[in-house]
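INPUT
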Amino acid sequence: MKRLAFTVVILYYLLLGGVGYCQDLISEVKDNDGNMVEYAVITAIPRSGEVKKADKEIISVIDQVDKTFIDFVTPIMVGTTLSFPNSDKIRHHVYSLSEAKKFEIPLYPPGKGKVNPVTFDKPGVVVLGCNIHDWMKAYIYIVETPFFAKTDKGGKAIIKNIPAGEYKVEVWHPHIKKSSASVKETVVISKGSDMKADFAIELKKVLSVRRAPGSLGGGVYP
Amino acid sequence: MINKVRYVVSGLLLVFVFCQTASAEWGEWVLNTSLEGGFEDNINFAIDKNGRLSDIAISPSIVFGRYYQLGDYTRLRIVADLKAKAYKRYDGLDSLSSGVDVAVTHKFGLGQEVPWLRVHSFAGYLAVNESLRNSWLYNGGVAFGKRFSERFDMLLSYDFIYRNGSNNKNVAEGFLGNPFDQVGHKGTLSLSYLLTERLLASLSYSVYSGDITSTNEHNDMLKLANFTKALVWDETFKRHLWTYKLNALSNEFTIGLSYALNGHTSVNVSYIRVDGYTSDLHYYDNLVLTSIKYTF
Ligand SMILES: [Cu+2]
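OUTPUT
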């Protein structure tokens, strides 16, 4: 009986909420100086607490091109498997020492497609590094909702086809200051009309290991 | 004959190293190029203030070779190192040096801040326009590196330096003609600090203990005998001077700034101060260098 009720509810949402209406949640993220912020992740968590599970299929990749991770920020849902191809002609040694997922893919050769899969089963932030190239750095942001999007160069993110309902909407960025106003407790998405949720966040000044050679010639792990 | 033997031995050594590493994991290519220009105010390391000669020089260099991954945390680097140097005034000092450097670096685990240790050995030949300075160059040593944060990096190294100069004929009674046969030890501490995303500041301090050459005007051979056992009559500086070998302790202090144009290229400026002391003499040298460097 319970199952039937659940199915009816899902069908109701599919018929009335989703199909055909396609309302989007659109966000713009700026920093305190008014600059548009790239690599911010917007998440919308249904206030009902109901979320669907992530596809077990590999849906995303983090590639390596010219000794750089592509992309710098990758948002995924808990349970997602990411693959780690290598488009360079050299080996990389990818690792994470983060609590959300500790792993290591030691020295792996060039390869395309669904190679080196890693499943991320806890929410949180994973900082990726390469043990050969210290300047290589990237972030995986693992969220508990299927409704998320990453801002582009213009600071804009669109969560497409978000079902109507009430959501808690949050913004995250690898360099976001804790003091930032990063949460909108209740954002109501109505059927058939797009919704806006903009953020102004404070960013920490974060420096990364420099790649270019220094005046002494040394510096970077040789 | 001895030189021929050395060529054969070093050639065989190279072939051996390449064969040994052919089975090692594929690593990556090394290509570093640099174009350096600079001013030095005491190129002859003169002890007497009036004898100091200055010049500007330009120096392109290229380091190429490859890494071999010996294990997950250990890599072997074999590179050829070629460097040319041309002086404006004293072209007798123009030189071409070439050599091979073999280094094994081990990183003690996973992460940016994990320390690493490197053992290396270099052998090369320095060909100078004024051929009495031609020398075989050898050095070997260890380096220890540790990053403390994304901004702050440290390098500690020790090198044994051996220069085997050509044996010039004895020009003065009681003296040997080989001032360029030199042995020394050098210890260095280098610190780098990232000021902005692109700007890197570096400080380095070295202590060298060993042989150096100094070129001076001297007529009093008796007095010279107190300082040195090896000297040559030297016309490199377009005047009649004596170049002789001294045992010295020198401090070298370097301060540098490096601006990254992109991930591969930087523009650099540095100032180097050298203060050398022998038992009763003191010389000093100031250098200002600018360079553009490219790393693949
Ligand atoms: Cu790498």
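end of record. Residues 42 and 171 of chain A are 5 Å apart (CA to CA).
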